[in-house]
Amino acid sequence: MISLHLECESLSFVFVGTTNTKRERAADRESPAPIDASRLFQGHREIAIVFRGDTYRLRITRNDKLILTK
Fold first, then answer.
1. What's the pTM?
2. I want to staple 6 with a disulfide (CB 3.0 to 4.6 A). Which of 12, 13, 24, 30 is the partner?
3. Positive or negative, the Cα torsion across 47, 7, 52, 30?
4. What's the whole-number mean pLDDT along residues 4-11?
């Protein structure tokens, strides 16, 4: 099972999923519902994401691109 926990100020998200075989992935073509970035960033340009004990930074660049760094 894969778990991703995002926290930003007063907002917290936990995404949980499982690793599937190729056959299971082929059968399940439905994509997860998108989350608007404004809900994650809440006016900030950078957020911290903890994944498997490591902290990553997701930031919005000057050119409005997303960059994820460890």
1. 0.56
2. 13
3. negative
4. 58
∠ CA 4-64-49, rounded to 5°: 15
Contact 25, 19 (CB under 8 A): no
Distances in whole angstroms, Cα of residue 34 to Cα of each of 22, 38, 40, 56: 23, 12, 12, 20
Element (H, E) at 39: helix 37-41
Q: In angstroms, rounded to a whole number, what is the distance separating the alpha carbons of residues 51 and 13?
A: 12
**Buried b vs exposed e over 17-40: b needs ≥16 C-beta within 10 Å?**
eeeeeeeeeeeeeeeeeeeeeeeb
Residue-wise pLDDT for 13-44, tens only, equals 666 666 666 666 655 667 788 889 999 999 99
DSSP H or E segment with residue 26: helix 22-27
